[in-house]
User: What shape does this take?
Amino acid sequence: MSLAQSPSKMRFLLYIGLIIAGCNAQQKQERRFPDDFIFGTATASYQIEGGWNADGKGENIWDRMTHTQPHVIKDYSNGDIAADSYNNYKRDVEMMRELGLDAYRFSLSWSRILPNGLSYKINEAGVTFYNNYINEMLKYNITPIVTLYHWDLPQKLQDLGGFINPLFPEWFEDYARVAYENFGDRVKHWITFNEPREICYEGYGWTTKAPLLNATGIGTYYCAKYLLLAHASAYKAYVNDFKATQNGECGITISVNWFGPLTDSADDEYAAELKRQAEWGLYANPIFSEDGSFPKELSEVVAKKSLEQGYKKSRMPELSDEEKKYIRGSSDFFGVNHYTGAYVSAEDNKGNYITPSLLADIDVGSYVPPEWLSSASTWLKLSPNSLYNSLTHLHNKYRNVKFYITENGWSTTPDSGLIDDDRVLYYRTALNTLLDAMEAGVDVKGYMAWSLMDNFEWMEGYKERFGLYHVNFEDPARTRTPRKSAFIYKQILKTRVIDPNYEPATLTMWIDEGH
Ligand code: PNW
Assistant: This one.
């Protein structure tokens, strides 16, 4: 008997077919980003704005360092003009519309708004610039996400000791209030600091970011303490005096790369834990953990080594019970900047660390498999599951925290052109593992690609490019041109699905209806 002659068999097959189709649809459904998931891109003031002394802006630590010590930047360049967003902000917003962004994360230049850093003198031209930028975004329904501090401290405050001055929390709170007062009617997402590790370890404890303090072994830890107090002060100012009327949220962004043990030995597990505590736990624990203290093992190691080295007390300052209480819980979300990962070993691949220093304190080695795809940045490799590992780890460690990925991206060389297949592979891999993490129960509300466009990559100058858009820095107009990755990102945002086979038909951009 043929199938066609057996209605019951037909019905059965149809039924099975529907189940399979249903499962497929459901599977596809599960791999979609939710409609209310916020997709955006990120930038930072000093990296894109230029206009370094325009219309009353004060000097900041990057102006000072690049002008007086140009040799510390790989190509002797600086951010005096950068991508000239100060004059190109309408084009920036047009690019956001081309990509179909839900949100745009950018930072305010403190010394553009408060030239000396202190809040008694406001530079109205600076406020106007940000008003224009924000209003242009809102015209097209693009949500501004504002970082108050992305590394460009007013030089006058640095002259007074910067983050190590106990008055720093007060200065920062005053500045934050000026920002809430002027922009908070339209800005509903605030990030106090971008990447405490890069501020404190690289800038105060080492020489890989301004202000090059090189106070190894001490600078990092003292900076961490006052940064956390400043963050908590700005958070509380928002919650107490603005939240009820402005209805927004305030949090912090911390760089979290993944550090897993090289082997499953107890020593490597401990080494990896120490590394995580030194890299990000130092800043995250006081805010997100239940006890609100600096990480336990790291504190113990620093205290022990300090005494052995003849210090009277630990080089890591204490947080008093009152300070812990003040800092604990002071964030509505955890902003994660994630780029890469490495394996950590208790014995292998150690460096010759300067003593005392954060690296000598933890004294662990790290290993990066040679087969991981390399970017144009020495530190940035495609570490396949690192975003998933970081997010699930943080989710298990700090309960009930909601996350935004506030940066994630890939660098290419200046001459690598517009076909950036490695960047496409990196983004697709990261976004797939982000979906894995969300399916595993991690509460992630949004994702910002770093970066909207090529920009001043700090010590690397213009030698490393992170943009979805290429910027021509030779051209006075700083012309922006979309790379292939821009079209791939646009497609993912529009469909909410990562199609591994999608290829753009053309590299000519357009704006979809509604943007
Ligand atoms: C971020 N790491 O810094 C910054 O927030 C951006 O301003 C910067 O342009 C971007 O990443 C690319 O470098 C990081 O060593 C610097 O893993 C270094 C690391 C991570 C983030």
Observations:
- Confidence is low (pLDDT under 50) at residues 1-29.
- The two ends are 59 Å apart (CA to CA).
- Residues 7-30 form the longest helix (24 residues).
